[in-house]
């Protein structure tokens, strides 16, 4: 059985992030297609869309949480540019974690609230604030997986 690999999102000329169905399309992509999409760079507007549509936070909050340079990213958004591979990878981590949290809480809004609240297992940092580096992402995933599958710490 082979995984389906949807084509690039319709209506997105620069990369993932501009089209209405892009988030669902990304979720359904095979892992290697996700990797290639990240490497090519998401459309910079994905930052605004993730912040406002998925997380309900100000764009600046998301940029700060992911340690992304505001002026550079806002310029890319204004010029309809693409994010770098590293910038896209940080955004992808948010999408992956939001997806896991949504599965756990069975509600995307509750998952977004969880991502924006301080967590004792993250030294009182918000899950969103530790996704800028791989060990933070790994820790958040571990917390969600343990909660989902009932594994003790």
UniProtKB/TrEMBL annotation:
Signal peptide positions on this chain: none
Domain of life: Bacteria
Antitoxin Xre-like helix-turn-helix domain boundaries: 36-95
Molecular function (Gene Ontology), one example: DNA binding
InterPro entries the UniProt entry points to: Antitox_Xre (IPR011979), Xre-like_HTH (IPR046847), Xre/MbcA/ParS-like_toxin-bd (IPR024467)
Stretches assigned to the Antitoxin Xre/MbcA/ParS-like toxin-binding domain: 101-150
Pfam families: Xre-like-HTH, Xre_MbcA_ParS_C
NCBIfam families per record: TAS_TIGR02293 (TIGR02293)
Protein name: Antitoxin
Lineage of origin: Bacteria, Pseudomonadati, Pseudomonadota, Betaproteobacteria, Burkholderiales
